[in-house]
Structure formats: C-alpha cells, structure tokens
Amino acid sequence: EAQVTQNPRYLITVTGKKLTVTCSQNMNHEYMSWYRQDPGLGLRQIYYSMNVEVTDKGDVPEGYKVSRKEKRNFPLILESPSPNQTSLYFCASSPSPTGITEAFFGQGTRLTVV
Amino acid sequence: AQKVTQAQTEISVVEKEDVTLDCVYETRDTTYYLFWYKQPPSGELVFLIRRNSFDEQNEISGRYSWNFQKSTSSFNFTITASQVVDSAVYFCALSEADRGSTLGRLYFGRGTQLTVWP
Prior knowledge:
The complex is a heterodimer.
Chain A: E1 4-7, E2 10-13, E3 19-25, E4 31-38, E5 42-51, E6 54-57, E7 65-66, E8 76-78, E9 87-94, E10 104-105, E11 109-113
Chain B: E1 4-5, E2 10-14, E3 19-21, E4 24-25, E5 32-39, E6 46-52, E7 59-61, E8 64-69, E9 74-79, E10 88-96, E11 106-108, E12 112-117
Parallel strand pairs in B: 2-12
Antiparallel strand pairs in B: 1-4, 3-9, 5-6, 5-10, 7-8, 8-9, 10-11, 10-12
C-alpha cells in the first residue's frame, strides 16, 4: 500500500530534550516536505527536499533541522525543543514539486513540549 | 499577505442542507494548482481534488462540487445534502508552478471547520 509513515504519532517531551520525528514513504517520490499545523493558522511549511541531499527552508524553519540521506526517509529534528513547537506535524511526499499531482500526507505527529 | 484565504472559520449546518466553503487565492503565476483537503476529527489529511489553472470546468463528484473562477480568484467547494460524516476541517491550498516560483510549496488557507448536526 502506498503510504507516508510518520513516527511517533504522539509525543510529549520536555524543553531542551532533542527529538526526531521520522518520515518514510514507499512510493519512490523525489519531493518531500514537513508542515506544522496550528489552530487558526492552517498548515505552514517547515522544510522541503527536492531529492537526496537537497533540502531547503520553508516558511517556518527556525528551531528545526532535516536531512535527506535516502530517498525514502526525511526525518525532522528538533535539537532543543521549546513549548512554542507544540504542534501537529505532517510529512508529505509527491512525485513532482509542481503540484501536477497531489501530495500524500502522513498520519500526523502530535507533539507537546512542556 | 495570505496567498489563500478561507474567510469562514466555522460553519454549522443541519443534515441535508447544502453548504459552500469559500476559497480565494492570490498568485501572479499563470500556471498554478489548487487543492482541497479534508481533515476529519481523526486528524489525517484526505485529498479531495486538484485543479490546474488552465481548467476552469466545474467538477462534480457525488455530493461534492467545485466551482473554479479565475476572474474572481476563487475555488469554492459545495457539499450537497450534507451528512454528519462531512463534519471536518476543510483546507484549500495553492501550489505555484511558473519558472522561478518556489516549486513544491503548498500554501494552505487557515481552514474552515464544518459541523453538520443531525
């Protein structure tokens, strides 16, 4: 089954404790991205990757890191999480970055930083 | 400036009523794509439709229909005979595809919470 898998689905952590949210897709898509969703703000892009070893900042990259060492994986790293990073996070992949096909989204990761 | 505006934050209707969710977008690109996604209470994002800027034909899929009007930069979504299962947050999104645009970025509206009461 074609899918984007995020882990964990839920995470509660403390301020400053490094964490990684994993994202994996099995569709051989070149383009992957991370979004955060906050009430009243919709989804905003954090980082995106056009292909292996090619990443770039989205609208809200501060406090986040990503890596793309393999085509299928695109982890989101929070080196020192803060409470303002409490949010719902989505990973997405698509075969093309142009919008010619829809993006496939993971199930979401609900992160709480206390 | 917000590229995608969903002015309706919340809408409540009673089952079997028709409801229209508004979406207004802003872009200078000639090639772009518009999307609607549904987010049910379980939280996942469900793709509903994609429209490119060169295709202004309205689309109907069962109880769902979409009205794309470039003249007013709108891409509205209508649910006919709404059902309780339609209760969700609905997002409109824009992807710009002209040369020089930031490819791959989906600009989302802030979403419209639709509640359908039995």
